[in-house]
Amino acid sequence: MKKHLKQAAYIFLVALIVCAVSCSDNVNRRLTLPENRGKALQQPQSPQKPSNPPEVPTPPTGEEHHTPPESTPGAEAKKQELFKRLLNAALRFEKTVDVGDLHISCKTDSNGQSECKKLYSDFLDYLDENSLFLFHLSPSKDITYKYKNDNEDETASYELTFLIESAAADADYQRLIQAFEKFYSVVHESMSQPEISYALYRELQKNIVYEVNSSSQYQRTAAGALLDGKGVCEDYSLSYKKLMNGAGIQTVCVEGKERTVYAGPTIAHMWNRINLDGQWYNADATWDDYRFAGQYLRSHCEGKHFLTSDSRFYGADALNHPLIYQKYHPVPTANDVRYENADCIFRNGDKKSDPFYHQGYWYYFSYENMSIYRSRFDGSDKKKLYQKLYHTNSKFYQPNYAKLHRIEFGKEKIYFIDYAESHGTSGNALYTMSYDSSSVQKIGTAPSPSEPLKDETDKPEREAPGTFALRVELLLAKITDAYYHGTEEYFIPENPDRKKFVTAIQTAEKLLQNAQPDAHAARELYTELHGLRTRRFMERTCSR
Q1: Which of 136, 355, 428, 437 could form a disulfide with 362 if both were Cys (CB 3.0 to 4.6 A apart)?
Q2: CA 122 to CA 244: how far, in whole Å?
Q3: What average pLDDT values come out for the chain (544 residues) when binned by 10 residues?
Q4: CA 164/CA 134 separation, integer angstroms
Q5: Ramachandran region of residue 108, left (φ > 0), alpha (ψ -120 to 50) or beta?
């Protein structure tokens, strides 16, 4: 009996040792601990970043999915999931967004910051960087949230604020799309980035009146000036930034108050900074809006503050503009002065008509010597095309003769009014001139001040759609897909037509990442994307 017990004990002991070794091997396969070498165990050090970190899997980007925020382990994974929830909820007009399972801290630090507010600020930046214009979502980064009942340091939910009710979104979407199409229609494919910047700058000034837009829910937002045609410096600056970024030109808004030299009271102000080919410039659409433009037929852009260097913009002996608040610093310096030449097409707007773009040149009427000029954007290759015969009569320099100085542009000719005496008749006559001034003809009597100079159908031909048209269409397509994808998740299209739409959007984004996108490919993709967008095959975005 004892012999059997000894054998059983021996067998059990061997089995126990084998099991222990096996378990130890299994543990060591999962987690290799450093050798202690007789030393006391140390507290683990912060992990060092490897010199060549492994590639992190990126979310799918094919036709099955939109591209969500970049995914990396840990905090970034939490951010990605939060952004998905916030975006889907915002587009469905769902005010409460549950985030309790994400363990987002709402505890404030010594600077009054918290993880929950920082993440929401990042979300708004994400929308901006990806041209997802949620016009109905409040742009304020001061988000409301609720904390957990069992843990007041963690966020239970975000409470979104909407500028309008869901029922008004359809009508405002239509108004916004029409506004974008109108503003972008002044841009030509052959324009350079500085020319695009000016065309949008002046168009904004042409269509906005400086006035507090207190009756609109969109006041002091990027949509306010575009939709309502009036606003203050915030409306001008935010709308200009939206137009410019949609055109692929980096533009930011800044604020300030104090000046280098100023004895009187100061008030807070907002303006823009523009990045053109790596050079930063200052621009203030509000202060450059010439208020007598319509009355005296002058340019809507006075041109003092546009594309200026820091020395000219802030200098006490120059424009003495308010200085940027310290919270925006550091900001890149604006040192380039190439556009501060007085002959630049946008300078001295109070002394010329609105410059008109045609095949690489800008045409305008100068009130300084009653002449029609043509020049490049920077003022080079400037040429006087025609000086009106009445330029020697001082009375015509008075503002009440503005209608006499009208100038209109047709497909092949420029139309204007001048004296008729040298042509054997008295009074004024209507003339045409070719764009190179090689041919000038009197074609009849001058129309009355209320009548146009040319037939409405006589318009310059539009250039074929290309890279710029595709950029605009991409902006409009992303707005459309955001507001019209039914009950689907934003990042996961299911409808076959929507899959095709999303694929076209992603293809356009990829093409436009090239330094020199292929013009033919851009034109074909624009046609496809425009056709898909205008079909509107999905219902308004809503909850399941």
Answers
A1: 355
A2: 21
A3: 47 45 37 31 35 39 50 77 97 97 92 92 95 96 94 96 97 97 97 98 96 91 94 96 97 92 80 97 97 93 97 91 92 96 96 97 96 97 94 84 92 93 70 96 91 95 95 97 97 96 97 94 97 92 92
A4: 11
A5: beta
Cis peptide before 330 (omega within 30 of 0): yes
3-state secondary structure of 274: strand
Measured at the CA of 335, the angle between CA 330 and CA 338, to 5 degrees, comes to 150
CA separation for the pair 290, 468 (Å, rounded): 28
β-strand partners of 283:
272
Burial track 14-30 (b if 16+ CB lie within 10 A, e otherwise): eeeeeeeeeeeeeeeee
The set of residues, in sequence order, having a beta carbon less than 8 Å from that of 500 and lying 6+ positions away, is 63, 532
Residues forming beta bridges with residue 251, ordered by sequence position: 274
Which amino acid, residue 204? L
**Are 482 and 93 in contact, with CB atoms under 8 Å apart?**
no
What counts of helices (H) and strands (E) characterise the chain?
A: 12, 16
In single-letter form, the type of residue at position 232 comes to V
- Structure token digits, residue 462: 């539009």
> Which pLDDT belongs to residue 425?
54
- At residue 398, the pLDDT reads 85
Residue type, 134: L
What secondary structure letter does DSSP report for 219? T
CA dist 359 and 345 (Å) reads 15
Strands (E), 49-201: 96-98, 144-147, 155-159
Measured between alpha carbons, how far is residue 146 from residues 117, 140, 399 in Å? 12, 17, 61
How far apart are alpha carbons 488 and 478 in whole angstroms?
15
DSSP label of 385:
E
Burial of 372 (0-12, 13-18, 19+ CB in 10 A): buried
Helices 467-483, 169-184: crossing angle, 10 deg rounding: 170
Q: How many CB atoms lie within 10 A of CB 91?
A: 23
The confidence score (pLDDT) of residue 395 equals 84
CA 335 to chain CA centroid, Å, is 24
Run of H or E including 23:
helix 2-30
What is the rounded distance in angstroms from the CA atom of residue 200 to the CA atom of residue 247? 10
Q: Retrieve residue 359's tokens.
A: 């095949």
Residues 6+ apart with CB under 8 A from 170: 540
What residues does 361 pair with on adjacent strands? 358
Residue 98 tokens read as: 């549950």
